[in-house]
Design goal:
The chain has about 675 residues and is α/β, with parallel strands linked by helices. The protein has 23 helices and 22 strands.
C-alpha cells in the first residue's frame, strides 16, 4: 500500500486551486492527471529577463521586464496591427504591437494612463523601439528573472501551468533519503524535494535535474533487481541434456560463432536450479530460431516439455512449420495451438499435452489459457518479447514449476536501453550473420521518380518475384495510414489487377491473416501495407520492398521494415522513396540506411539522432518510458543505479532497514510498486 506521506502528490489534478473541468482537458492531453504528473512535468527551457527601470538602445534583441504607461492607441486600416504608444519612467517611448483581434480588446488590456509591468523582446522598427505581443504582469506581480518554459497544449499558457507547478511542488513532502550517502556526496546532488524545487525555479540547474533522473532510473533498476531476486529464489529445476537428440539433427549449414556461443550460455543457464531469465537479441536473419530450437531440444533431452510463444497466429504457424521441417525424423512430437483450433482437434492437442505425448508446443497466447495443462513444462521461449507484458509472463511461470524463460527480440536495441528495459535479464547478442546471406541493396529515390519505381515493380513481377509496398505515416493516426494504403493499392490495381493485396491495422486479425497467407502462398504479387508488417511472416520469394516517404520513419523502423525481404537466397532490394525538402536528420538517416545493414549500428545511431524522443516509449519497446531521464543521461546513470540497486538488495533483501524503507517509498513515488509484492522478509 502506498505510504500516506505520498497521498498529497497522488491526488487528482482538480485538487489544485484554479483547475476546473475546462483546464483539466488541456492538462489531460499532456498526460497530467495527478498532482505528481505536474510536479514531474519538467521545463524544457527558460527565458532570461533583464529587469529595467529605463528603456536603453543596448537592450535591443533582449527580453526585458519594465514598467510602462500607455499614452495612446493607434489602429491600422484593414488587418494591420494595433499599436500602443507607451513611455517609461524617464519619458522614453516604445510601441507595444498587437496583431489580430480587435483594437477594443487592446484598449481594455492597456488603458491610457495606467502603469503596467510589461515583459517581452525589445526590437528596433525603423526609428522606434517596439515590443510585439508583450506579456503583462498581474497587479503587484514581479516577473521572474528566469522563467521556465514547459511543454504546453492548446488552452494552457506557460504562466498558468507554472502556477500549477508551484502548487504541486508545495505539496511535495520531505522524504527520507534512498541514495547511498557516498554517491550523493560525490555527485553533489541535493535532497529530493530540494531538487524538485530547484529544477522548476532554474531549468538550467543540471545537478537538480540529474538527481531526479537518477531517482527514476534507480527505482526502475531496483524493481528489476527485485524481479530478478524473486526469480532466483524460486526453485526451478536443472535441465541437463545428454546431447543425444541434438546429435541426430542434420543441419544444411554450420552454426555461426555467435550462435554456438549463445547456445552454450543458454545451456549453462538451464543447468542451474534457479530459472533462466535470458533475452536473446538478434538482427533479422541472424538465426535466432536455430538457437531457440537448440534450447527446446535440451529441455526434451532432459525429459521435459518446451513451449514457444509467438505474437500472431500466422507467425505461430510459421514457427511450427519451420520446427517441423528442421526436426523431421527425430524422436519427438511438435504441435501447434492457436485461437483458431476448435473442437476435436483442440481436445486431442490438450490431451496429448497433458499426457506428455507432445514435447514442444508452438502457439499464440492460447497456450497459457487455464484449460491448457502441461505434464512437465520446463522451458518457455517467447518470440518478440516486447509484444508480451510482465503479467502474461507470470501466467506462463505458473504453468510449470517456474520454467526457464528465453525471450527473443528482432529489434536491435542500444546497450543502454537494453539495460533500462531488460535489466532483470541476462542478455545474449547474435551479432554475426550466417554465411551466404547477402546484404540487402538499398537505394534512395526522389518521389518525382514514382513512375519509374512502378515500372521497375512491373518488371520484378514479370520475372516471378513478389514485393512489399509500405505506405507512409501521414500523421499519428491509423486512419490516415489506412487511407494512404487504400489509395496506393487502388492505383497499383489499375496497373496490376488482383495481384495486389492490402493489409492495414484496422482490419480484423482473421482478415489480415487471410491476406498475408495469400501473399505467402504467392497468390498475390504485391502486398500494400502500413507498418503492421514490421513483425510478420517470412516470404522468401519477396525480394523487393518499396517504402514511401521513408523520411517520415525512424531509423529502427526502416530497418525492421527492410528486414521483411532478404529471407531467401537471392539478392534483395529496398527502395526508399523520399520527399523533397529533407531535414538534416532525415538526410543522415537515409544515408546510413544506404550505407549499412547492421541493425545494432543503426540502433545506436537512431538513439543519437532522436535524442530523448520516443526511443523509450511504447512504440519502440512496449515498456513504460522514463519521464525525467533522457537517453543521453541513461548512459551515465544506468550502470551506477544498477550497481546501487543490486548492492541494496544484497545487504537488505526485504528493504527493512532505514535506507531500504526509503527505497520502498521511491518505488511507490515512481510507480514501480508492483515490485514491492516480491519482497522477501529478512
Amino acid at each position: 500500500m502506498r505510504p500516506d506521506i505520498l497521498n498529497p502528490l497522488f491526488a487528482e489534478v482538480t485538487a489544485l486551486k484554479g483547475v476546473g473541468p475546462a483546464l483539466a482537458k488541456p492538462l489531460d492531453r499532456l498526460g497530467l492527471d495527478r498532482v505528481v504528473d505536474i510536479a514531474f512535468h519538467l521545463p524544457t527551457g527558460w527565458i532570461d529577463r533583464i529587469p529595467r527601470d529605463e528603456l536603453i538602445q543596448d537592450d535591443v534583441g533582449r527580453t526585458i521586464a519594465i514598467t510602462l504607461t500607455p499614452e495612446s492607441h493607434r489602429t491600422s486600416a484593414g488587418r494591420g496591427p494595433t499599436r500602443v504608444n507607451a513611455t517609461d519612467a524617464c519619458g522614453n517611448h516604445v510601441s507595444l504591437v498587437y496583431f489580430g483581434g480587435s483594437s477594443g480588446w487592446v484598449k481594455k488590456l492597456l488603458p491610457v494612463g495606467e502603469a503596467k509591468r510589461v515583459s517581452g523582446k525589445l526590437e528596433q522598427y525603423g526609428q522606434e523601439l517596439q515590443i510585439i505581443h508583450p506579456e503583462l504582469g498581474e497587479p503587484g506581480e514581479q516577473f521572474r528573472d528566469r522563467e521556465a518554459i514547459y511543454p504546453l497544449s492548446e488552452g494552457l499558457t506557460s504562466r498558468r501551468l507554472g502556477g500549477f507547478v508551484e502548487q504541486a511542488v508545495e505539496r511535495a513532502p520531505i522524504l527520507p533519503e534512498w541514495i547511498e550517502p557516498g554517491l550523493k556526496a560525490k555527485r553533489e546532488w541535493p535532497d529530493w524535494r530540494d531538487a524538485l524545487v530547484r529544477v522548476h525555479a532554474d531549468p538550467a540547474d543540471e545537478k537538480a535535474r540529474e538527481r531526479l533522473a537518477y531517482d527514476e532510473v534507480f527505482a526502475n533498476q531496483l524493481a528489476m533487481a527485485l524481479v530478478r531476486a524473486d526469480t532466483r529464489k524460486r526453485r526451478g529445476r536443472a535441465l541437463v541434456g545428454d546431447g543425444s537428440i541434438r546429435a541426430m539433427l542434420k543441419l544444411p549449414y554450420t552454426p555461426t560463432g555467435a550462435q554456438s556461443r549463445t547456445v552454450a550460455e543458454i545451456e549453462g543457464d538451464m543447468a542451474q536450479a534457479s530459472p533462466m531469465l535470458r533475452l536473446l537479441q538478434g538482427d533479422v536473419g541472424s538465426g535466432k530460431t536455430l538457437v531457440a530450437t537448440m534450447a527446446l531440444l535440451i529441455a526434451v533431452e532432459a525429459g521435459a516439455q518446451g513451449a514457444m510463444l509467438a505474437p500472431t497466429e500466422i507467425l505461430a504457424r510459421q514457427h511450427y512449420e519451420t520446427l517441423r521441417k528442421t526436426l523431421a525424423g527425430l524422436p519427438l512430437n511438435v504441435a501447434v495451438l492457436t485461437g483458431r483450433d476448435k473442437g476435436k482437434v483442440r481436445e486431442a492437442t490438450l490431451m496429448a499435452l497433458a499426457s506428455g505425448e507432445i514435447d514442444i508446443l508452438v502457439g499464440t497466447h492460447a497456450i497459457f489459457q487455464e484449460a491448457v495443462q502441461y505434464r512437465d513444462l520446463a522451458l518457455v521461449v517467447v518470440d518478440e518479447q516486447h509484444r508480451f507484458g510482465v503479467a502474461q509472463r507470470m501466467l506462463l511461470q505458473d504453468k510449470g514449476k517456474s520454467p526457464h524463460l528465453l525471450a527473443m527480440t528482432a529489434t536491435p536495441i542500444p546497450r543502454t536501453l537494453t539495460l533500462a528495459q531488460y535489466g532483470e535479464m541476462d542478455v545474449s547478442r547474435l551479432d554475426e550473420m550466417p554465411p551466404g546471406r547477402q546484404p540487402i541493396e538499398t537505394r534512395v529515390i526522389s518521389e518525382e521518380r514514382l513512375e519509374d519505381v512502378v515500372n521497375a515493380l512491373g518488371r520484378h513481377l514479370s520475372d516471378g518475384g513478389q514485393a512489399y509496398w509500405v505506405c507512409p505515416l501521414v500523421e499519428e493516426s491509423e486512419k490516415s495510414d489506412m487511407a494512404a494504403a487504400e489509395a496506393r493499392a487502388e492505383t497499383l490495381r489499375t496497373r496490376f489487377g488482383d495481384r495486389v493485396g492490402l493489409v492495414h491495422g484496422r482490419m480484423k486479425p482473421a482478415e489480415k491473416d487471410s491476406v498475408m497467407e495469400a501473399f505467402a502462398g504467392a497468390r498475390t504479387g504485391v502486398l500494400v501495407a502500413t507498418t503492421v508488417i514490421e513483425v510478420g511472416v517470412d516470404v522468401p520469394n519477396a525480394t523487393l520492398i518499396v517504402i514511401e516517404h521513408a523520411d517520415r520513419f525512424g531509423l529502427a523502423q526502416l530497418h525492421q521494415l527492410r528486414g521483411r525481404v532478404g529471407r531467401g537466397g537471392g539478392q534483395s532490394n529496398c527502395l526508399l522513396i523520399r520527399g523533397n525538402g529533407l531535414s538534416e536528420t532525415s538526410r543522415a538517416r537515409l544515408a546510413l540506411m544506404r550505407e549499412t545493414n547492421d541493425g545494432f549500428r543503426i540502433a545506436e545511431e537512431d538513439l543519437r539522432l532522436r535524442g530523448a524522443g520516443d526511443m523509450l516509449g511504447t512504440r519502440q519497446s512496449g515498456e513504460a518510458s522514463f519521464r525525467i531521464a533522457t537517453p543521453d543521461m541513461l548512459a551515465d546513470l544506468l550502470p551506477c543505479a544498477q550497481d546501487d540497486a543490486r548492492l541494496l538488495i544484497d545487504r537488505d533483501g526485504g528493504l527493512e532497514g532505514d535506507r531500504g524503507r526509503a527505497a520502498r517509498t521511491a518505488l511507490y513515488l515512481f510507480e514501480r510498486d508492483s515490485a514491492v509484492a516480491l519482497l522477501r522478509s529478512g
